[in-house]
Amino acid sequence: MLSPIILSLKISAIATVISFFWGVFFAYIINKRDIPCKNLLESILILPIVLPPSVVGYILLVVLGKRGIIGSFLLERFGIQLVFTWVGAVIAAVIVSLPLMYQNSKAALVSIDPIYEKAARTLGSSEWRIFRTILFPLSWPGIISGTALSFARAMGEFGATLMVAGNIPQRTQTIPTAIYFAVESGDNRLANSLVFIMTAFSFVMIYTLNQWLKKKNYVGGKG
Q1: pTM greater than the 0.85 cutoff
Q2: Fold of the domain spanning 2-222
Q3: Tens of pLDDT, residues 114-129
Q4: What does the longest C-alpha to C-alpha distance in the chain come to?
Q5: Per-residue DSSP letters for 27-79?
Protein backbone atom coordinates (compact mmCIF):
# COMPACT_ATOMS: atom_id res chain seq x y z
CA MET A 1 0.00 0.00 0.00
CA LEU A 2 2.91 2.33 0.66
CA SER A 3 4.31 2.18 -2.88
CA PRO A 4 1.42 3.93 -4.71
CA ILE A 5 1.29 6.63 -2.02
CA ILE A 6 4.99 7.45 -2.35
CA LEU A 7 4.83 7.34 -6.14
CA SER A 8 1.74 9.57 -6.22
CA LEU A 9 3.43 12.14 -3.99
CA LYS A 10 6.55 12.03 -6.15
CA ILE A 11 4.67 12.43 -9.43
CA SER A 12 2.37 15.13 -8.04
CA ALA A 13 5.27 17.13 -6.57
CA ILE A 14 7.26 17.10 -9.81
CA ALA A 15 4.18 17.88 -11.91
CA THR A 16 3.23 20.75 -9.60
CA VAL A 17 6.69 22.34 -9.85
CA ILE A 18 6.53 22.16 -13.64
CA SER A 19 2.96 23.49 -13.72
CA PHE A 20 3.91 26.28 -11.34
CA PHE A 21 6.58 27.75 -13.60
CA TRP A 22 4.76 27.20 -16.88
CA GLY A 23 1.41 28.34 -15.48
CA VAL A 24 2.78 31.61 -14.14
CA PHE A 25 4.83 32.12 -17.30
CA PHE A 26 1.89 31.66 -19.66
CA ALA A 27 -0.42 33.73 -17.45
CA TYR A 28 2.06 36.58 -17.63
CA ILE A 29 2.87 36.54 -21.34
CA ILE A 30 -0.73 35.98 -22.44
CA ASN A 31 -2.34 38.58 -20.17
CA LYS A 32 0.42 41.12 -19.62
CA ARG A 33 2.46 41.04 -22.83
CA ASP A 34 1.59 41.74 -26.43
CA ILE A 35 2.06 38.44 -28.28
CA PRO A 36 0.32 37.00 -31.36
CA CYS A 37 -2.31 34.25 -31.22
CA LYS A 38 -3.19 34.84 -27.57
CA ASN A 39 -6.64 33.28 -27.84
CA LEU A 40 -5.30 30.22 -29.63
CA LEU A 41 -2.59 29.63 -27.04
CA GLU A 42 -4.99 30.12 -24.14
CA SER A 43 -7.52 27.75 -25.71
CA ILE A 44 -4.87 25.04 -26.05
CA LEU A 45 -3.83 25.51 -22.40
CA ILE A 46 -7.39 25.27 -21.07
CA LEU A 47 -8.52 22.45 -23.39
CA PRO A 48 -7.53 19.58 -21.02
CA ILE A 49 -10.11 20.88 -18.50
CA VAL A 50 -13.04 20.25 -20.83
CA LEU A 51 -11.74 17.10 -22.53
CA PRO A 52 -12.42 13.73 -20.86
CA PRO A 53 -9.26 12.36 -19.19
CA SER A 54 -9.39 9.31 -21.44
CA VAL A 55 -9.24 11.55 -24.51
CA VAL A 56 -6.27 13.45 -23.07
CA GLY A 57 -4.58 10.14 -22.33
CA TYR A 58 -5.21 8.84 -25.83
CA ILE A 59 -3.76 11.99 -27.40
CA LEU A 60 -0.67 11.69 -25.21
CA LEU A 61 -0.39 8.01 -26.08
CA VAL A 62 -0.51 8.84 -29.80
CA VAL A 63 2.10 11.59 -29.43
CA LEU A 64 4.43 9.91 -26.92
CA GLY A 65 4.01 6.27 -27.98
CA LYS A 66 6.59 4.27 -29.89
CA ARG A 67 5.02 5.31 -33.18
CA GLY A 68 4.20 8.85 -32.09
CA ILE A 69 5.92 11.97 -33.35
CA ILE A 70 7.80 12.65 -30.12
CA GLY A 71 7.89 9.10 -28.80
CA SER A 72 9.46 7.57 -31.91
CA PHE A 73 12.05 10.34 -32.13
CA LEU A 74 13.15 9.93 -28.50
CA LEU A 75 13.22 6.14 -28.79
CA GLU A 76 15.22 6.04 -32.04
CA ARG A 77 17.68 8.82 -31.22
CA PHE A 78 18.17 8.45 -27.48
CA GLY A 79 16.60 5.14 -26.53
CA ILE A 80 14.12 6.90 -24.23
CA GLN A 81 10.64 5.48 -23.76
CA LEU A 82 8.04 7.68 -22.08
CA VAL A 83 4.91 5.53 -22.13
CA PHE A 84 4.42 3.06 -19.27
CA THR A 85 6.98 4.88 -17.12
CA TRP A 86 6.63 7.23 -14.17
CA VAL A 87 7.88 10.04 -16.42
CA GLY A 88 4.85 9.46 -18.63
CA ALA A 89 2.68 9.74 -15.52
CA VAL A 90 4.33 13.07 -14.71
CA ILE A 91 3.62 14.36 -18.21
CA ALA A 92 -0.03 13.33 -17.92
CA ALA A 93 -0.28 15.02 -14.51
CA VAL A 94 1.27 18.22 -15.88
CA ILE A 95 -1.15 18.35 -18.81
CA VAL A 96 -4.23 18.07 -16.59
CA SER A 97 -2.98 20.30 -13.75
CA LEU A 98 -1.45 23.13 -15.82
CA PRO A 99 -4.86 24.66 -16.75
CA LEU A 100 -5.71 25.13 -13.05
CA MET A 101 -2.37 26.78 -12.40
CA TYR A 102 -2.80 29.02 -15.41
CA GLN A 103 -6.37 30.05 -14.57
CA ASN A 104 -5.57 30.95 -10.98
CA SER A 105 -2.41 32.83 -11.96
CA LYS A 106 -4.31 34.67 -14.67
CA ALA A 107 -7.09 35.71 -12.29
CA ALA A 108 -4.51 36.96 -9.80
CA LEU A 109 -2.52 38.93 -12.38
CA VAL A 110 -5.45 40.62 -14.13
CA SER A 111 -6.90 41.71 -10.77
CA ILE A 112 -3.88 43.92 -10.10
CA ASP A 113 -4.49 47.60 -10.82
CA PRO A 114 -2.45 48.57 -13.94
CA ILE A 115 -1.57 51.87 -12.29
CA TYR A 116 1.20 50.13 -10.34
CA GLU A 117 2.82 48.92 -13.56
CA LYS A 118 2.46 52.31 -15.23
CA ALA A 119 4.05 54.05 -12.26
CA ALA A 120 6.96 51.59 -12.26
CA ARG A 121 7.53 52.09 -16.01
CA THR A 122 7.48 55.84 -15.50
CA LEU A 123 10.28 55.40 -12.96
CA GLY A 124 12.30 53.41 -15.49
CA SER A 125 11.76 49.87 -14.19
CA SER A 126 12.23 47.01 -16.63
CA GLU A 127 9.44 44.53 -17.36
CA TRP A 128 11.29 41.82 -15.45
CA ARG A 129 11.68 44.08 -12.43
CA ILE A 130 7.99 45.01 -12.58
CA PHE A 131 7.04 41.34 -12.61
CA ARG A 132 9.49 40.40 -9.86
CA THR A 133 8.74 43.27 -7.47
CA ILE A 134 5.10 44.13 -8.19
CA LEU A 135 3.08 41.57 -10.15
CA PHE A 136 4.39 38.38 -8.57
CA PRO A 137 4.17 39.52 -4.91
CA LEU A 138 0.67 40.98 -5.36
CA SER A 139 -0.62 37.88 -7.14
CA TRP A 140 0.99 35.46 -4.65
CA PRO A 141 -2.25 34.35 -2.89
CA GLY A 142 -3.81 33.40 -6.24
CA ILE A 143 -0.66 31.62 -7.33
CA ILE A 144 -0.57 29.66 -4.07
CA SER A 145 -4.19 28.62 -4.63
CA GLY A 146 -3.33 27.49 -8.13
CA THR A 147 -0.37 25.53 -6.84
CA ALA A 148 -2.46 23.70 -4.24
CA LEU A 149 -5.21 22.90 -6.73
CA SER A 150 -2.67 21.74 -9.30
CA PHE A 151 -1.12 19.39 -6.75
CA ALA A 152 -4.53 18.01 -5.81
CA ARG A 153 -5.46 17.55 -9.48
CA ALA A 154 -2.18 15.80 -10.23
CA MET A 155 -2.65 13.60 -7.17
CA GLY A 156 -6.11 12.53 -8.28
CA GLU A 157 -5.37 12.05 -11.98
CA PHE A 158 -6.57 8.67 -13.24
CA GLY A 159 -7.74 8.43 -16.85
CA ALA A 160 -4.83 10.01 -18.69
CA THR A 161 -2.30 8.40 -16.34
CA LEU A 162 -3.76 4.94 -16.83
CA MET A 163 -3.56 5.20 -20.62
CA VAL A 164 -0.05 6.68 -20.74
CA ALA A 165 1.64 5.01 -17.76
CA GLY A 166 -0.49 1.96 -17.09
CA ASN A 167 -0.71 0.27 -13.70
CA ILE A 168 2.66 -1.34 -13.06
CA PRO A 169 3.17 -1.98 -9.30
CA GLN A 170 6.10 -0.03 -7.80
CA ARG A 171 6.73 1.65 -11.17
CA THR A 172 3.62 3.49 -12.40
CA GLN A 173 0.88 2.51 -9.97
CA THR A 174 -0.54 5.65 -8.35
CA ILE A 175 -3.23 5.90 -5.68
CA PRO A 176 -6.16 6.34 -8.13
CA THR A 177 -5.09 3.39 -10.31
CA ALA A 178 -4.40 1.27 -7.22
CA ILE A 179 -7.91 2.03 -5.94
CA TYR A 180 -9.49 1.13 -9.27
CA PHE A 181 -7.73 -2.20 -9.61
CA ALA A 182 -8.23 -3.00 -5.93
CA VAL A 183 -11.99 -2.65 -6.45
CA GLU A 184 -11.76 -4.70 -9.65
CA SER A 185 -10.01 -7.52 -7.80
CA GLY A 186 -12.37 -7.35 -4.82
CA ASP A 187 -9.75 -6.06 -2.37
CA ASN A 188 -12.09 -3.64 -0.61
CA ARG A 189 -9.82 -3.30 2.40
CA LEU A 190 -7.00 -1.84 0.30
CA ALA A 191 -9.43 0.32 -1.68
CA ASN A 192 -11.02 1.70 1.50
CA SER A 193 -7.62 2.46 3.06
CA LEU A 194 -6.37 4.33 -0.02
CA VAL A 195 -9.65 6.21 -0.41
CA PHE A 196 -9.50 7.31 3.22
CA ILE A 197 -5.87 8.42 2.93
CA MET A 198 -6.46 10.40 -0.24
CA THR A 199 -9.69 11.98 1.00
CA ALA A 200 -8.12 12.97 4.33
CA PHE A 201 -5.03 14.38 2.62
CA SER A 202 -7.09 16.41 0.13
CA PHE A 203 -9.38 17.72 2.87
CA VAL A 204 -6.49 18.84 5.08
CA MET A 205 -4.79 20.56 2.15
CA ILE A 206 -7.94 22.43 1.06
CA TYR A 207 -8.85 23.35 4.64
CA THR A 208 -5.35 24.65 5.34
CA LEU A 209 -5.35 26.66 2.11
CA ASN A 210 -8.72 28.24 2.90
CA GLN A 211 -7.60 29.16 6.40
CA TRP A 212 -4.41 30.72 5.04
CA LEU A 213 -6.32 32.73 2.41
CA LYS A 214 -8.82 33.96 4.98
CA LYS A 215 -6.01 35.04 7.28
CA LYS A 216 -4.22 36.70 4.37
CA ASN A 217 -7.35 38.60 3.33
CA TYR A 218 -8.06 39.62 6.91
CA VAL A 219 -4.55 40.95 7.44
CA GLY A 220 -4.63 42.71 4.08
CA GLY A 221 -8.01 44.28 4.76
CA LYS A 222 -6.97 45.28 8.25
CA GLY A 223 -3.81 46.85 6.90
Answers
A1: yes
A2: MetI-like fold (1.10.3720)
A3: 999 999 999 999 999 9
A4: 67
A5: HHHHHHS--TTHHHHHHHHHHHHHS-HHHHHHHHHHHHSTTSHHHHHHHHHH-
